[in-house]
Amino acid sequence: MRQNKTLKTIIIILILALFVYYAQNNFDNYKIRILNLCAINTILTLSLNLTNGFSGMFSLGTAGFMAVGAYTSAILTMPPEVKQMNFFMAPMNPALMKLNAPFIIALIAAGLLAALVGFLIGAPVLKLKGDYLAIATLGFGEIIGVIFTNTQSITNGALGLKGLPQYTNLYWSFGLATLTTLGLMTFLNSSYGRALKAIREDETAAQAMGINLFFHKNLAFAISAFLAGIGGALMANLLSTIDPTMFKFTYTYQILLMVVLGGMGSITGSIISATIMTIMMEALRSVESTLDLGFITIPGIPGMRMVIFSLILIAVVLFLKNGIMGENELTFEAVQKAINKLQPKKGGKSHEPTRS
Amino acid sequence: MNLLEAKNITIKFGGLTAVQDFNLTLQKGQIVGLIGPNGAGKTTAFNAITGIYKPTTGKVILEGQDITGLLPDKITKLGIARTFQNIRLFSNLSVLQNVLVGHHLRIKSSPLAATLRLPQYTKEENEMIQKTKELLKRVKLDDVQDEKAGSLPYGKQRRLEIARALATEPKILLLDEPAAGMNPQESKDLMEFIKQIRDDFGLTIFMIEHHMAVVMGICEHILVLDHGITIAQGTPEQIQNNPKVIEAYLGVETDA
Amino acid sequence: MTLELFIQHLVNGISLGSLYALIAIGYTMVYGIIRLINFAHGDIIMLAAYFVFFGAGMFALPWWLAAILSIILTAMAGMIIEKAAYKPLRSKNAPRISLLISAIGVSFFLENVAIVVFGGRPKSFFSPDIFKGVMKIGGISIPNLSVIIPIVTAALLIALVYLVNKTVTGMSMRACSKDVDTAKLMGIDVDRVISLTFCIGSALAAIGGIMWGLKYPQIHPLIGVMPGLKCFIAAVVGGIGNIPGAVTGGMLLGMGEILLVALLPGLSGYRDAFAFIILILILLFRPTGILGEKIAEKV
After folding, report:
1. Over the stretch B190-226, which tens digit does the pLDDT of each residue have?
2. ipTM of the complex
């Protein structure tokens, strides 16, 4: 039974790999960019779902951790000439000037540094309850932005960094998204995942059953920060330009929307909603620019996308409070059941044993 | 050596003294009861022993080790497990998962090993599942193992909470009103059950209870609390005939 | 630093602190009753400023009329938000997380609607001459505004304290913040009290927002974000649910921020971070806030 699952998972991954290979070589740049964003947003959504959905810790710090990851990757991947060009207002810290590393190292460093920051922030703050934790993590996200704006010799301050090598391609983004998904699935189905869910259900009872709250909460928080850092790094090397204002709370809110829409506590839900939302964000750009329908022109309304998204967030929480998937996963069994239901009933004996 | 000693435990919340000078000794294998009218401070005393509250003064000593003020998870690891008066199950997790969580504290594999499903972890996980299934059979919950804990009827929820506490492999089990809401037959079954697990698992049991039949039936020693003060302790016979106990529960007769 | 400069900074700090206090009150009152951080409260400030801007600008109303209308409209907006986005969740007994997410959604919505309707570029707030003047007290020049703001704030506070402590309405508000269910049993119309709380909180924030616009005359759709966060922090620092606490917290944060910039100009870029650092410290060492009460959890 378990071997079947592994086999099916491997098949899906192979199909995905073929798709990625085809897309990377045949799609136009615009489509590739959107696919990259889908994968990156999937990683970010899973990162936030880990804390907010599975562990019951309402964090709003995603953007801050993305910033840490993005800048780490930027500093490690920019060749010295590009750094020279960027730091024209004030010279860059000489030690950082010389740093250079291949993308894989930059990614790992981005994740680890973000995880470290996550631990430093989490250790004092994770014992706070719901609302306070939200504000504290939101605040830290802002502080990180403030720090990056003020450390001219490290981050080039408000000027940002341009000319980052565009290492991010579909292999990286989809590959990492797949690893993230698989890793989180095994982690959350393990004893540690159960411990986190227990903490979410009833912290006091979990502690009374011998679960060390500090360790487990910080574990989840650090892993979440790690993933957000990687997401930020992938983003940096996709867009090629970063600055402190990119990673503001608005980005966190968008990821929050994806988590809520997909279902707080569903991995497949997060993948689905991240993909749908990313595509929608692009599709809705047309609302913002002038629509030329030939016989009439509808003027574009800039900023309308975000208005629609905020309404979606409110609507989801008001009417669809468990999101698309709730806490369920799109498992192979679920798909099989759905297919069975759709097939017409055959005459004769049924296969299911009747319940006594 | 005494298994557990609570010495002069006093718990104050601001101006209110919830528990005053509480003393307790538990020998291995005993079943000891704690009774008293509502609001007497019984659960508060429990909470002091299990680390949820830090006593204002006094000490708790487990097998010679001072455990006063340690965090609850540490105390559970050292061997004291409990159930809650208001049943605190993990409602959205299944019956099986609830008890599995109880085993987590003894896990040796790291989170990374668990994520990578290394053989060391898989072995531990299988052992945990095995032990859990046995526990569930013991409390007769094996037929509902995949149901959500929150959907179980009250009596089964109580049994599940006990199974979960047993999963932590405790030396001492603190039961907070285990017979609450049970009919006479269920209470009798519970009494048998408690004696059995005490024998089979080598436990020591300390229980808060209001069902006098249960308390008098299985407790070898009983403490009586009223307004935070221990007004009496002794064998069931001694307690039943103690005028102060009767007064605490029923009030004093006044001449009309 | 000369005495004159120091006094000016002090006065500046008091006036900023007063603004923070006014806005923090709205947070603390709402949190006290329904345990919700109204993320949208900060954006209310922005709405009020824009209402005045359009009132005085587009409709050429006299500034005081524009201000009054703005306060009324903003208070109504606060009540509408409560009815539309929070009440349905309260009635369904939704988990607090859902309320929080809804509040975030509303905040997001207000900011983006403002961008769409008002445009993202900063606009110049109007400034009647009374507010532009400078007075001399004991030989030190102090902007009129820096004196007017604390006075207005103090007057509002006196009125609020009177309302909360000496009127029946105030008593129902205090009852609801202590124990909503018991208040319901005592026949208090909790929904009405909550609406009123939002109304008052939003009105105070509106006044704060208008004075903010006078003090910092460049307005744009996101001006409410930082003050919103800082004022919530102020409410927590002073003791959440506690009106004197909100005032204390607001003053502390306002003065602290100005003095930080005054005494350590090299760190002025970190002025926004100041509030968050205070938050972390308070949450670590005195989580119930300076004037807060300890609440024990019954296990």
Report:
1. 899 999 999 999 999 999 998 888 999 999 999 999 9
2. 0.92
Alpha helices in chain A (DSSP H): 2-26, 29-49, 62-77, 80-86, 94-98, 103-125, 130-150, 152-155, 170-188, 191-201, 203-208, 213-239, 249-262, 267-283, 285-288, 304-319, 332-342
Angle, alpha carbons A65-C97-A266 (nearest 5°)? 70
Helix residue ranges per DSSP H, A126-209: 130-150, 152-155, 170-188, 191-201, 203-208
Q: Is residue B177 part of a domain?
A: no
The predicted model gives A327-353 an average pLDDT of 66
Chain C residues with at least one Cβ partner in A under 8 Å: 31, 35-37, 85, 88-89, 94, 96-98, 100-102, 104-106, 108-109, 111-113, 115-116, 120, 225-226, 229, 232-233, 236, 269-270, 272-273, 275-277, 279-280, 283-284, 287, 299
Query: Do the beta carbons of residue C118 and residue C221 sit within 8 Å?
Result: yes
Q: What are phi and psi of C221, to 5 degrees?
A: -60, -20
How many domains does chain A divide into? 1
Residue B48 lies in a domain: yes
Q: Assess if residue B220 is contained within a domain.
A: no
Q: How many domains does chain B have?
A: 2
Between residues C298 and B43, which one has the greater pLDDT?
B43
Q: Which residues in chain B have Cβ-Cβ distances shorter than 8 Å to A192?
A: 104, 107, 111, 114
Gap between the Cα atoms of A19 and A123, Å rounded: 42
User: Residue A119 and residue A224: Cα distance in Å, rounded?
Assistant: 10
Q: In chain C, helix, strand, coil percent, each to 5?
A: 75, 5, 20
| Straight-line distance from the first to the last Cα atom of chain C, in angstroms, rounded to the nearest whole number | 55
* Residue ranges making up the domain that contains B231: 1-80+192-200+225-256
Cα distance between residue C19 and residue C45, in whole Å: 11
The closest of A304, A288, A122 to A213, measured between CA atoms, is A122
Most B CBs within 10 A among C293, C294, C297, C299, hence the mutation to make, goes to C299
- Report d(CA C64, CA C153) in Å as an integer: 17
Q: Which domain CATH number covers B160?
A: 3.40.50.300
- The answer to whether B53 and B244 have CB atoms below 8 angstroms apart is no
CA C23 distance to own-chain centroid: 1
For residues B55 and B106, state if they share a domain.
Answer: no
| Predicted confidence (pLDDT) per residue in B160-177, tens digit | 999 999 999 999 999 999
Nearest alpha carbon to residue A225 among A42, A344, A48, A38: A48
